[in-house]
Please model this.
Amino acid sequence: MMQTPASTTAEADADLYLPRPATVRSRTVLTATEMLFELAMDDGKPLGHMPGQFVEVSLPGIGEAPISVSSSPDGRDRFELVVRRAGRVTAAMHDCRMGERVGIRGPFGTHFPVDGVLRGRDVVFIAGGLGLAPLRSAIQYVLNHRKDYGRVTVLYGIKSPVERMFLDELDDWSRRPDMTFMETVDRADATWKGNVGVITRLIPAAEIDPKRSIVVACGPPIMYKFVIVSLYSIDVANEDIYVSLERRMKCGIGKCGHCQIGGLYACLEGPVFHYPVLLGVEEAI
Ligand SMILES: Cc1cc2nc3c(=O)[nH]c(=O)nc-3n(C[C@H](O)[C@H](O)[C@H](O)COP(=O)(O)OP(=O)(O)OC[C@H]3O[C@@H](n4cnc5c(N)ncnc54)[C@H](O)[C@@H]3O)c2cc1C
Ligand code: FES
Model:
């Protein structure tokens, strides 16, 4: 059997550990707590991600945080990240201006199977809150390759109207004749004229064909419990469900164990999981 030369393995390992410089090309306020960053790698190469993967973003002297890539790969040399201000690293990122540098490791993890089992099937995206950030990458990819898929449905649920992100894109999706877009808020305000209630209320109304559809969901853990029950009620099979799970991550490359769910490493075997893999795994969902 051919052995991998030690130097090659060491170089590959160094690639995983060493942040590569990237420059902030633009920043856009999305909500009171979320900022959209467009970045480009300083070596001029595309990031090389697939929808659903994440990167480790580092700021020297402050720290590192895993953030999902929010834009579609499709031949672009720039990529986008949605960053919610949560603590030290994410607050420091919000302070990054155009032209400033950050470190990027990755892309890491598994991806939504946009280039695999989703092809030819109806695709139902279910996004809860910040879950729209990684799903947007897959939605953009599917819309860019529209003829490769059957019916496309996007269901989006958030707590209140002020948390809606990507308003122009939501507007575009709601007008497109080749897809269905439905959204709901848990609590309306005076401006809101749309659906009110939790995201599961959209599922029966979306006219999903359980035999033709694959469901791809991303949202807070509590959302999955109810979404899965609701999908069962319309006869969607476990085999036709993919979910993205976030766990505390440090290294992002299977070394530290921080991200373990049962015996699974969320950074390597996830964050995107085929739902049957999670059945019986304690605390997965
Ligand atoms: C695979 C993956 C993808 C992610 N994608 C995104 C993304 O696209 N956009 C985004 O804004 N965030 C994303 N996150 C969450 C993000 O990594 C955390 O918010 C960030 O690491 C917090 O770091 P901090 O130093 O700013 O906060 P800290 O000072 O470390 O913590 C501040 C607060 O955030 C909470 N927190 C820390 N880590 C997490 C976590 N992993 N999940 C939930 N709460 C956490 C802490 O409990 C604490 O309350 C993702 C996480 C994972 C694992
Ligand atoms: S984040 Fe370190 S093992 Fe997964």
In short: The pocket of FE2/S2 (inorganic) cluster (ligand 2) is lined by residues 249-252, 254-259, 265, 267 (CB under 6 Å). Residues 161 and 185 are 6 Å apart (CA to CA). The chain has a mean pLDDT of 94.
